[in-house]
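Journal club side-thread
Mid-discussion, someone asked how the predicted structure for our own chain would compare to the paper's figures. Pasting it here so we can look after the session.
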Amino acid sequence: MPPLPMGDGHTIRICHCSDGGILINSYCPDKLLAKDEKLATHLSRNNTLHDFKETEEEVLVSVLKGIQAIFKKSPVHKQADLAMIELQEARKKNAKNARLQKVLHHDRLCILLATHLLQLGPQIRCRQEFSVTWLAKSLDVCMGVS
């Protein structure tokens, strides 16, 4: 059942349990997501299970959001170092995906996407510049000299 918005900013979600009971959740989305970016990211993600596997683009955007969060929270003189550490952790975590690895190994490209393009909003994320396939092919053509 879809969430039901209430007049006071709260939302109610009614779930039917397998044992015949009903579970009612009442929450205020603005207050719930105001402080914790990780919670908002987690709630907006698809499952990593086989039925709703994350796409390459979702993984890329989550990595870039992590880098962007570090840039916002860190002192200026530590931003680049901390962003590189986040990028290295993302490479280790997503080691099985060859195309994503190709994109993540271009440090300056990832930093540019995270700090300049990602902040332009969700409409930009639908463009081909955030497609892992397009980025990987473009790296071969445009940035073939490594």
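Post-session note: The chain is about 55% helix and 10% strand.
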